[in-house]
Design brief:
Blueprint: E1 8-11, H1 17-26, E2 30-34, H2 46-55, E3 61-66, H3 71-81, E4 85-88, H4 96-102, E5 107-113, H5 118-126, E6 132-136, H6 156-165, E7 170-173, H7 181-188, E8 192-195, E9 200-201, E10 204-205, H8 207-218
Parallel strand pairs: 1-2, 1-8, 2-3, 3-4, 4-5, 5-6, 6-7, 7-8
Antiparallel strand pairs: 9-10
Helix pairs in contact: 3-4, 5-6
Length: 221
């Protein structure tokens, strides 16, 4: 996939309609809504996810972050929550085709946690089955799984290699802030950026940090 100079921005860990509106005001193209997770920030009840997703105007994408690893669980969860995109944050043990058949029109984004060179092969193998790959800095192999929201970035050289090797868009996540967002774009060239902790203060979406992020992105490469 070719490099993108002006990537779309997904603001994750949205906790309320007010946060959703604030992110959209500054230019977010997508919002992340976090369901039950073994660790990490931003988890809200499914009833809240459904309420926020229903309030978001098109063409803003709403991502349901799910730690479920089976197709039936994800299908049921999406139907309860109503988001237009599924973000699978753990290794998926089911059938992507089953998801597509049951949920027509719902985009599928698979997270790959970039922990080393094997992550490149993992992404290459997954790409034909999904609409996008999201590269994050978690570690699902830990006893208490890290599936996102770590606030640290991984080896962006590996992320760039994945972007060059696959034919679906990539989102880059993990430790992106207003201070390093231009570096992320220059080093990786992702289709999209996924940001949670980098635009928050004490867990709350921070207007000043949002403004700085989008201002820095607006500077031409």
């Amino acid at each position: 996939m070719q490099a993108t100079k002006q990537p779309r921005v997904k603001i994750c860990c949205i906790a309320s309609r007010e946060e959703a509106n604030l992110a959209i005001e500054y230019g977010a193209a997508a919002l992340g809504l976090v369901s039950a997770m073994p660790s990490g920030p931003g988890v809200i009840r499914e009833e809240q996810i459904a309420e926020i997703a229903a309030s978001v105007p098109p063409p803003i994408a709403t991502f349901l972050l799910t730690s479920s690893q089976d197709a039936d669980g994800i299908i049921a969860q999406q139907r309860r929550c109503g988001a237009n995109t599924i973000q699978i944050v753990d290794r998926f043990l089911g059938s992507y085709e089953k998801l597509r058949t049951a949920l027509p029109g719902i985009a599928i984004v698979q997270v790959v946690h970039v922990t080393g060179g094997s992550s490149v092969e993992e992404a290459i193998g997954l790409a034909p089955h999904v609409d996008a790959i999201l590269l994050d800095s978690g570690n699902p192999a830990l006893v208490k799984k890290e599936l996102g929201g770590t606030g640290r970035h991984h080896d962006w050289n590996l992320s760039r290699k994945i972007r060059e090797e696959i034919d679906v868009p990539i989102f880059l996540a993990g430790g992106i802030t207003p201070a390093n967002v231009r570096e992320a774009v220059e080093d990786v060239g992702p289709f999209g950026l996924d940001i949670c902790t980098g635009v928050r203060t004490d867990g709350l979406l921070d207007r000043t940090k949002l403004r700085a992020l989008f201002d820095n992105l607006a500077v031409p490469l």
